[in-house]
Amino acid sequence: MHPAIDQLSKLPIGEQLEIVQDLWDNIASTRESMPIQEWHREIVQARLAGTVNEESGLTREEVWKQVDQKRGS
User: Fold this and answer.
1) Alpha helices per DSSP H over 1-73
2) CB 41 within 8 A of CB 30
3) Looking at the whole model, is its pTM more than 0.90?
4) Phi and psi torsions of 7, nearest 5°
5) CA separation for the pair 49, 57 (Å, rounded)
6) Quick one: pLDDT at residue 64?
């Protein structure tokens, strides 16, 4: 565990949450890209491949329309 965590954990929860939000904001504003592991890419590709049945010729919008109809929306 990072030594700063010991000090931060002594702060009230509200202050800890503010620090977490500040960290996320800082990370989001950084132009540095995060390395993506190959197995993450493989999972994303597998999930994307399964989102639309290309054989049916349906667009994503048509698929979601069918889903909404089945839900009664």
Assistant:
1) 3-8, 13-29, 38-49, 60-71
2) no
3) no
4) -70, -45
5) 14
6) 86
Supply 70's token pair. Answer: 């089945």
Burial 25-39 (b: 16+ CB within 10 A, else e): eeeeeeeeeeeeeee
Q: Who wins on pLDDT, 70 or 47?
A: 70
pLDDT per residue over 17-62, tens digit each?
Answer: 999 999 999 988 887 887 889 999 988 888 777 665 556 677 778 8
**What is the Cα gyration radius of the chain?**
21
Q: What is the pLDDT of residue 46?
A: 80
Q: Are 21 and 14 in contact (CB under 8 A)?
A: no
